[in-house]
Specification:
Radius of gyration: 19 Å
Number of helices: 11
Number of domains: 1
Structural class: alpha/beta
Shape: globular
CATH topology: Rossmann fold
Number of strands: 9
CATH superfamily: Alpha/Beta hydrolase fold, catalytic domain
Distance between the termini: 33 Å
CATH class: Alpha Beta
Largest sheet: 9 strands, mixed
């Protein structure tokens, strides 16, 4: 059957209640869609289009990946909606095993599958009659920045890439924050993961990693945890589908999977790395920028931290993003 990958397509009026962490724009329409990736996992997404779109024409499209542990109803949706206001077809999706997307066991985290989710979204967009399949770009926020880079290394249908507050989750898991993990610490953690696999196989007891965003903070909470708390655990960015935890044994895959091995191969397609001036995570983007080939740009947002670029419009450089994609997807 033609277009078997498309599972459901609904109209906004009868299926989509507004359960986002941001206000709805009156300049766009949004529909809930779902489709399968190559692992047969159903991906749930929201597609945003300009209200005055002429669907007899073809438009450039932007795929937005959510922060690691986030969902499409949060920052990714803000980016997708705003890019649609600026004339693009834009889509924000939930990664496999998380949010409204399918996949078991829940809260699994997989570098390979999270990268595949970007390509599956390219598949979906490329057969929309109003999308120019030669003008598809991606924006990856936080952990999705690393996955977006990895997807573009092998999926040449992606014509331009921007990362925002990028985290390289594979590097973080295998080397620790600021590459501080010792070999002894790495081996000790791998031994713990091996024991946990036996527990899961024998007893079926899944164990989750600690929350990336704590539910409560006090005077002893470190600044990075406090920053994530202020977004994920307060009304500012809280969503029930986003608990910022994954299965513990998922970490094995990240510790064995490099996301940026072939970053130079993205050239001559351009990469725009956007970082906050004060972001604790900016070293991920700075190092990836050094590894990438031209054309590339590292753009620092004055005064911004890591999470500021999830949702704070006074910091998010939407003019920069609009010009980047329009100039590079002609």
């Amino acid at each position: 059957m033609k277009n078997e990958s498309i599972m459901t397509q609904h109209t906004a009026a009868d299926t989509l209640s507004w359960e986002k962490t941001f206000p709805k724009s009156d300049k766009v329409t949004v529909e809930k869609v779902s489709f399968k990736n190559r692992y047969n996992i159903i991906i749930s997404a929201d597609i945003y289009v300009p209200k005055d779109i002429d669907k007899s024409q073809k438009y450039a499209a932007i795929i937005v990946g959510a922060p690691y542990g986030g969902v499409k109803e949060q920052g990714a949706g803000i980016y997708a909606q705003t890019m649609a206001e600026r004339g693009f077809v834009a889509i924000a999706f939930d990664p496999s095993f998380n949010g409204e997307s399918g996949g078991e066991p829940r809260r699994t985290s997989s570098p390979d599958i999270f990268v595949e989710d970007f390509s599956a979204t390219v598949d979906f967009l490329g057969i929309r009659p109003f999308v120019d399949r030669n003008k598809i770009g991606v924006i990856g926020i936080c952990g999705s920045g690393g996955f977006a880079i990895s997807a573009a290394q092998v999926d040449r249908r992606i014509k331009a890439v921007s990362t925002v507050s990028m985290y390289d989750i594979s590097r973080l898991k295998s080397k620790g924050f600021l590459d501080s993990m010792t070999e002894e610490e790495r081996n000790k953690y791998l031994d713990q993961l091996g024991e946990q696999r036996w527990n899961e196989f024998e007893l079926g007891e899944k164990k989750l990693t600690p929350r990336g965003a704590p539910e409560k903070v006090d005077e002893n909470t470190d600044p990075i945890s406090r920053e994530f708390y202020e977004y994920y655990s307060t009304p500012r960015g809280y969503h029930p589908n986003s608990i910022t935890q994954f299965t513990m044994t998922s970490d094995m895959s990240f510790m064995n999977f490099s996301l940026h091995t072939y970053i130079k191969s993205i050239s001559p397609r351009p990469i725009l790395f956007i970082v906050g001036e004060h972001a604790h995570s900016k070293y991920f983007s700075e190092d990836a920028y050094k590894l990438a080939a031209e054309p590339k740009e590292l753009y620092s947002v004055p005064g911004a931290g890591h999470v500021d670029l999830y949702d704070r419009f006074q910091y998010i450089p939407f003019d920069k993003l609009e010009s980047f994609f329009k100039e590079n997807m002609k």
